Amino acid sequence: MAFTQFNTPDEDALIKAASKGDKDAFSRIVSMYERLVYNTVKSKVGSIDDAMDISQEVFIKLWRSIGRYRGDCRFSTWVYKVSINTCLDFLRKSQANDVLQMPVFTDKDGDELTFEPSDDSITASPERLYEQNEAVRMVRDGIARLSPEQREIILLRDIEGYTYDEISEMLQLEIGTVKSRLNRARSNLKLIIERSRDGQWIAHE
Amino acid sequence: MKTNLKPLTCEKARELMFDYIDGELRAGDRLRLENHIAECEACKCELSERSEMLRLIASCGENPPSELKLGVMDKIDNIPQETAAERLRGRILPMGALTAAAAAVMILVVGRGFIFGGVMNDAKPDAGVQVLMTADKYDAPEVADEAADVGNASGFTADAVKELSDADMVNNVVTAAPAENVAAPEAAEEYVYATTTALKAASPGYGLLFDTAEVYASKISATNTVDIEASDSISEMYTATYSPVDAMFEKMRNRETAILVCLADDLKLPEGDHTTETVYLGTSEFIHVTVEDGSITLFGDLLQALESDEAQYRAAVPEGDFTGLDIFMLTGAEN
Question: Looking at residue A33, what is its pLDDT?
Fold first, then answer.
């Protein structure tokens, strides 16, 4: 059986071991994918608590059904699909699709970021805006304002660092489409950031 | 570096910038962009901003709270994994019948990237059919839809169809038909037809597989004797189910369906001549039998036919599109 066509041998060994009940192996799989799962889920659902619960549910599903994975796509694709499907189940059940389109981004203390510039950022100089924390905050705000499609591709490529090939498989898109969507998303994000920055400059002046 | 390359406009330069940062530009475009940047302060500034933005985006991801992993590891202590039997039997096939009745035939339709399995219980035609279908085209909801339609048409219960559409992963589509509702062969046929039609649409490699499988099927149906010394009951089993299976093959051939493997459970192989290995195929655990010297008489002429034809089929189809000759035996010995 061509079990190892897409993953590294190490990863395959972990998957195989986990499918036979090896919890240490599964623990390593969780470590490898918790960022992908968590950030994916968080970008889809409405609250941090939900994101935690759903992420856990994703991993429990993976644990239960890892024996179904046959190695005919990347394991990351499988994990991503399970994440997305679990989110969709959640959204369906909560019957709240309409209010859950806005992802939540948090600062390092776990407080939700709002789209209003903080007092601090209003009084900051333009130079200050480029300093790390404020700049990251602004970029996060910008990402939150992208369409779900554009947000998804930025998350996969620019935040989680998946290759075009991997993303193409995850999203079932041609590579050309992945590239053009990514390009649009980035350009759009840049515009959003610029507008937001210009707005703050005006507010500041 | 000055070259004769056509200069870029600012607009074109900006189109290329992200690819440039990613290192995805071809040499010619890269040079043109670099030439442009060397002379255009605004674009130079833009490039630097974009580059900075991508760097910032990269730091936007968050590491999940440590409680996530701790919680998962804590919970799975009390959550058993699906066993192979559960994957096959619990959710899909409540099929004590397979091991109990001497007339169960497992048919696998194996395609590149998907598997269809059906179980017909010929000993009790009224006993219905339990069908499982697995498509690993994760984005093939049309497969699920087709299957649901067929399920409805075949008298599958609403619950079974619901389970189909609510399957926790799109790639695992499962239905179970209550025995009394379905006449086995027809339902299986319809199911196979709908499934393969949908899967063919989803998988461009399928046609090739069909070509080979068609011949396999005819080889199978041309085999009139079963030579399995180790088990008389298997011989009987195969004989007993031969006729409907043959008829099914005939119809499947006409409908361009791939059939590679026909097997029964509880088969004792003669010693030597082969190696076995447990494999996971779709939702089921199987023993994969590799025949080493070709002398084993598993299913009589069937195996021989498959083996002698393999080279021919390998030559006839492009590299990479041939699924190979795999004999999978359902490990259905749990009684």
Answer: 95
